[in-house]
């Protein structure tokens, strides 16, 4: 049984005067515990597809199921991590990371203690009573990840979560997120414009073509890279070969993403 199944997704945005097709006949599956990336030029429908998978947008045609159930009925099982941390500035870090549990009516003392422990495991010791403005960008993103993981989602959606960070912080956070998701055996989908990031973090990379968005090619990342941390993967001899292969495919589509 496929953990996540995306079946013949087609989506068109309609206005009073026009119709723009963002996605056309997109089908793929993701296995439980797998980390996959969506890579492609701007306007290829990556974020639209992510919103459809999360149940935030209904496709014009097609279905998305998580463990054979429609995703629209499973929104509490799907977590989202975005470019911005979206921590509430007037709430403490503790209040922010417990917010999802509170909204879902699942907050109790045991859950609170578990979430605080996770915060500390993320290297954020003693920050519970601080406010977001007192933390660096990388620290806030770690807190946002704790808030997402606290609700124990079955599927984690990552929409360019590192793009606003400086390069050194980005590399450190890639390792932290990758190791954390592996330890929790989480299934994740990353949307990115960064070829290197997609290779370093993923088991598979889906390359989309634009106008309308379709899966152009699927790349299986070599095992030696999958078994490495993202930082080590970037320095592995096999990294350059797969990078060049994906780069050439992007060139054939008439665009180059970041490297």
TrEMBL record:
Cytoplasm in keyword set: no
InterPro entries documented for this protein: AAA+_ATPase (IPR003593), ABC_transporter-like_ATP-bd (IPR003439), ABC_transporter-like_CS (IPR017871), ABC_transporter_ATP-bind (IPR050166), P-loop_NTPase (IPR027417)
Residue ranges of the TM segments: none
Cross-referenced SUPFAM superfamilies: P-loop containing nucleoside triphosphate hydrolases (SSF52540)
Domain ABC transporter: 4-235
MF terms in GO: ATP binding; ATP hydrolysis activity
Keyword annotations: ATP-binding, Nucleotide-binding, Transport
PANTHER family: ABC TRANSPORTER ATP-BINDING PROTEIN, TAURINE IMPORT ATP-BINDING PROTEIN-RELATED
The protein, known as: ABC transporter ATP-binding protein
């Amino acid at each position: 049984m496929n953990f996540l199944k995306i079946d013949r997704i087609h989506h068109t945005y309609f206005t009073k005067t026009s119709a723009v097709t963002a996605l056309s006949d997109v089908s793929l599956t993701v296995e439980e515990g797998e980390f996959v990336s969506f890579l492609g030029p701007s306007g290829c429908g990556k974020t639209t597809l992510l919103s459809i998978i999360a149940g935030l947008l209904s496709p014009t045609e097609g279905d998305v199921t998580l463990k054979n159930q429609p995703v629209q009925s499973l929104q509490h099982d799907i977590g989202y991590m975005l470019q911005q941390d979206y921590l509430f500035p007037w709430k403490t870090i503790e209040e922010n990371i417990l917010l999802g549990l509170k909204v879902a009516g699942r907050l109790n003392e045991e859950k609170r203690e578990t979430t605080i422990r996770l915060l500390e495991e993320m290297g954020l010791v003693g920050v519970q009573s601080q406010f977001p403005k007192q933390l660096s960008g990388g620290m806030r993103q770690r807190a946002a990840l704790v808030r997402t993981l606290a609700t124990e989602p079955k599927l984690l959606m990552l929409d360019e979560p590192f793009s606003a960070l400086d390069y050194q912080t980005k590399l450190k956070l890639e390792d932290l997120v990758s190791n954390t998701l592996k330890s929790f055996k989480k299934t994740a989908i990353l949307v990115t414009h960064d070829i290197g990031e997609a290779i370093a973090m993923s088991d598979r990379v889906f390359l989309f073509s634009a106008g309308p968005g379709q899966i152009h090619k699927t790349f299986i990342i070599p095992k030696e890279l999958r078994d490495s941390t993202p930082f080590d993967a970037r320095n592995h001899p096999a990294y350059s070969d797969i990078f060049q292969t994906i780069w050439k495919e992007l060139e054939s589509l008439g665009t180059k993403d970041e490297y």
